[in-house]
Amino acid sequence: MLQIAFTESEKAKLKHERFHHPHPRVQQKMEVLWLKSQNLPHWQICELAGISENTLRKYFRAYKQGGIEKLKEINFRKPKSELVAHRTTIETHFREHPPATISQAIEEIAALTGIKRSPTQTRTFMKSMGMRCVKVGAVPAKVDVEAQEEYKQKKLEPRLEEAKAGKRAVFFVDSAHFVMGAFLGLIWCFERVFVRTPSGRKRFNVLAALNAVTHEVITVTNDTYITGTQVCELLYKLAALGYPC
């Protein structure tokens, strides 16, 4: 039997850490060494801790090598995918050509690197790069990114600074159209329940202006249409607030 000498201080630390250390694997190590300090035979320690004799001897060697601090080390083996070496190539390709499916990603990775992995392994690797499967968004077909950036830097941001300084007011204006109808939820029932609701052709329209600085919202509403008349009505409301132009 391997002999290990324990001081009373070490016994107290082992007893404490076997319950209070945040990691369960370290708690197990402390439990094993505390049982050893109580002079229990090795077979009984293995049975109580649920470990093999090889693991028992491994814990003992770690303790003799570095004491309690050595037992606190967590050294799980983390095998790295062969794809890691090709991460830059794969990431560059996928930024230009996002795959629609995992099957497509598998084939494109194989073509780039000569390495083919299962769907699960490929999905895990793609997530490790920061990729997610999300719905594609839409932008207006005629969008001009450069023109938008120029407008933001040369027109919008200077006006926002003037608004913060009280020299002018900046409003963001948009409209929303709410369909009048019932919100259908889920209920427990023996037969499907039907509720009376408007047809959905009638709407409640809201034209609003949001103050970019104070976040005050000024609205014009109706249940017909948003036309130039409502836009003029909103402008009259804004003019009546007396903001500097």
Task: Give structural notes.
The chain has 245 residues and is mostly helical. It contains nine helices and three strands; from the N terminus they run ααααααααβββα. Strands 1-2-3 form a three-stranded antiparallel β-sheet, with helices on one face. The protein folds into three domains: 8-71; 82-128, no CATH class; 157-240, no CATH class. The mean pLDDT is 90.
| Shape annotation | elongated
Strand count, sense and barrel status of the largest sheet are: 3 strands, antiparallel
- Trace the largest sheet across and list its strands: 1-2-3
User: Which regions contain 5 or more consecutive residues with pLDDT less than 50?
Assistant: none
- Total number of domains: 3
Tell me what portion of residues adopts beta-strand conformation: 5-15%
- Helical proportion? 40-55%
Helix segment tally: 9
List the secondary-structure elements in sequence, H or E.
HHHHHHHHEEEH
- Average pLDDT works out at 90
**Structural class designation:** mainly alpha
